Amino acid sequence: MQFGSHDCRAPASLANYFQYPVTFIVPVGVVLSLAAIWFLIATHSRSSISIFLPLSIFYAGWCLLGTLPTCCPHYRSRRDITLSRALSGPHTLAVGLAWWAFGMALAVAYVAFVYGKFRGKVILDAGHH
């Protein structure tokens, strides 16, 4: 099908699902986990929702891996954003790792400071908050 001078064919982002049928378990699992969350909300089981909701979101993220190597399809296949086109260079990754290590060290130091500052038992008298 043509639209002007552009090819409007559907991208082959689901090709891996049909090439490896076992990967259909991923979207089925997403649907089942969302159904479980809906059931838990209907039965007012709040403690179970706090476990299943993050797990289903994590599982849904894995569902995106079925579309690889095409991460963001374009109507012209040569302009697709593939995994190899989306990768950063080695220098960028090294700088990012250095900043991540610095940020994590700062976060750990902050948490250690806060825990040290507020350690001890809480007194539940009327004069204390």
Features:
disordered N terminus; flat; two-stranded antiparallel ribbon; mainly alpha; 129 residues
Q: In brief, what are we looking at here?
A:
With 129 residues, the protein is mainly alpha-helical. The protein has 5 helices and 4 strands, in the order E-E-H-H-H-E-E-H-H. Helix 2 runs antiparallel to helix 3.
Q: What is the secondary structure topology, with strand pairs?
A:
Elements: E1 2-3, E2 6-7, H1 15-19, H2 25-42, H3 46-63, E3 70-72, E4 81-82, H4 83-86, H5 90-117
Antiparallel strand pairs: 1-2, 3-4
Protein described:
The protein is mostly helical. The protein has two domains: 86 residues, no CATH class; 36 residues. Helices cover 57% and strands 7% of the residues. It has five helices and four strands; from the N terminus they run ββαααββαα. It has a two-stranded antiparallel sheet. A two-stranded antiparallel ribbon has the order 3-4. Helix 2 runs antiparallel to helix 3. The relative contact order is 0.09.
